Each structure stands twice: as C-alpha cells, then as structure tokens.
Amino acid sequence: ILINTISKIKIEHLFYIVCFVGISAFGFMLVNIEGTIAKYVIESRRLHAEGEGMGININSINLILVSLAATATVLKRNCQNVKYGNFLITSLYIGVLIIILIGGTRSALLFYLFLILYNLFVAFGRLVILPLVIITLLSLSSLFLYIEDLVIFARIVDFDPTSSGRILAMNDSLKNFSNYPMFGVGELYQQEIQLRRIGDPDHNFYTRLLGSNGLIGFAFIMFFLIGLIKSNAKHIKGLSILQGFFLFTFFFAPAGDG
Questions:
Q1: 182 Cβ contact partners less than 8 Å away, ≥ 6 residues apart
Q2: Considering the entire predicted model, what is its pTM?
Q3: What is the C-alpha separation between 254 and 211, in angstroms, rounded?
Q4: Which SS3 state, helix, strand or coil, does residue 17 take?
Q5: d(Cα 127, Cα 139) in Å, to the nearest integer?
Q6: Per-residue b/e over 174-195, b at no fewer than 16 CB within 10 Å?
C-alpha cells in the first residue's frame, strides 16, 4: 500500500517531503540535543543498537540523513522548475553536514563527500574535479589547527587499525573464508567466536558473509541484492547514486542478531 501511494505522488511533491523530513530531523536533533546527540557523542556514549537493546544509534541516524540527501539529489535532478528547490536542498545538505560533524560518523561523511563531488560534477563538469581536490586538501590542512575538538577529526586521526574491533573482526571473517572458502563456518559460530575473542562481531556485511557462508552463500545473497536494485528505469537521472548507496551501507551494517 505504501509503495503504491508513493508511486502516485508527483516527483516535485516527493522532493518537498524528503527535504522537509530531513530538515525537520536536523532541527529536532539540535533543539533536543541533550536527549539526542549528547547521549551518543558529548558524553562519549557511542552506543550500538544491538549491544544496548536499542533500535538505532548515531551512526544509523547519520546514514539515514545522508540517504535523505541522496534521495533529494536524485529527485531534484528529475524535477523541472522546483520552487525553492536550491534553497531546500542546500539547507538539507548543511543540516546533514552539521549532524555528521557532531556525531563523528566516518562512513556517513565518506558518502556525503561523494554526494558533494557528484553535485559539482553535474553542475560544472569534469573541469571542476582537479581544482576541487586541490582546494579541499588545502582547506583541510588549514583546518587542522582549529578542528582538534571535533569528534570526527579525533576518530579519523586516532584510528588504529591494529586495535580496532571492526578491523580485527573483518580479518577474522576473511581468515574463516580462507580456511573454508566454499561454505564458510556458519553465522552463529562465527559471531560467537568473534564476540568471545574480540568483543565485537564483524560489521562489514560482505566479509562477514564470506566467512560465515563462503562463496556459495555470498554469491546467492549478492545476486539477490543486485536484483533488488537492478532497474530498467534508465530515464531516471542519478538513480545510480541510490543504488550505490544501498550497496555502500552494507560495508557498515550493524552487527548482531538483527
């Protein structure tokens, strides 16, 4: 019913809805910052949903906001003469960036930067890429003097792959895959061992699937996922962004029974 209802909404109206939801979410999080962002970041409690019995965490929130920005980008490219379109999407992008910087979600920031590059590429063509990269690098190097207190800056600079639970769990999954390449070691067994040895199960869906189900299970699941996003709607501009974001999120999929 929901899909049928959405399919009947005009693209312009859907664009307004997506922007309204994203901007409203940003505003609510800032207004109620003590009940939202502060619990996850300011108090250094970056809770994982599956570990605390919660349905969502700051990483999930930031990825959802980026998905709204990506959706709005695609909708705007397929609209004509959207009133206040540039203002709305700019406001959405600014709001999403603020929450990402406060929340310190590296995965969301990575795809957000890709969206910025995509928009600039669409607007100015290939000539903008090289100057943009140079300006970005110079800007980041100058900002290092002022952004030491940002959570996301600290998480990137202080990241140690040798002690990261996620990296260790990924390596363990790949080790299981190398030992049992065809069928893997089983999902429950792999998760139990990783929790016991590392304290954190593999969050990368792809490596986790390889280790637990091997090439056979990986192939079946990937065929299914690709089938979900495969579309003949080639007339929709920018659709590949949403398809890419769908596959991108599985690199940072929540671990646990959910």
A1: 214, 215, 216
A2: 0.67
A3: 16
A4: helix
A5: 19
A6: bebbeebeeebbbbeebbebbe
Q: What pLDDT does residue 241 have? A: 82
How big is the chain by its Cα radius of gyration, in Å? 20
Residue 114 to residue 100: CA distance in whole angstroms: 14
The answer to whether 110 touches 63, Cβ cutoff 8 Å, is no
Which structure tokens are listed for 135? Answer: 């300006």
The answer to whether residue 168 scores a pLDDT higher than 70 is yes
Alpha carbons 48 and 57: distance in angstroms, whole number: 6
Distance CA 213, CA 46 (A): 30
pLDDT per residue as tens digits for the range 175-221: 999 998 998 888 888 888 888 888 878 888 889 989 999 999 899 88
Per-residue pLDDT reduced to its tens digit, 96-112:
988 887 777 777 888 88
DSSP 186: -
Which residue has 């939202």 as its token pair?
Answer: 36
Mean pLDDT check: name the lowest of 26-35, 138-147, 152-161.
Answer: 138-147
Q: Where are the alpha helices (DSSP H) in the chain?
A: 2-7, 11-31, 37-40, 49-52, 58-77, 85-103, 106-124, 129-143, 151-157, 165-179, 187-197, 205-229, 239-249
Angle at the Cα of 156 from the Cα atoms of 61 and 147, rounded to 5 degrees: 90
| Identity at 218, one-letter amino acid code | F
Q: Residue 41 has which token pair?
A: 């970041």
Q: Are 54 and 124 in contact (CB under 8 A)?
A: no
pLDDT grade for 21, boundaries at 50, 70 and 90: very high
What's the residue count for the chain?
Answer: 258
pLDDT band of residue 8 (cuts 50, 70, 90) is: confident
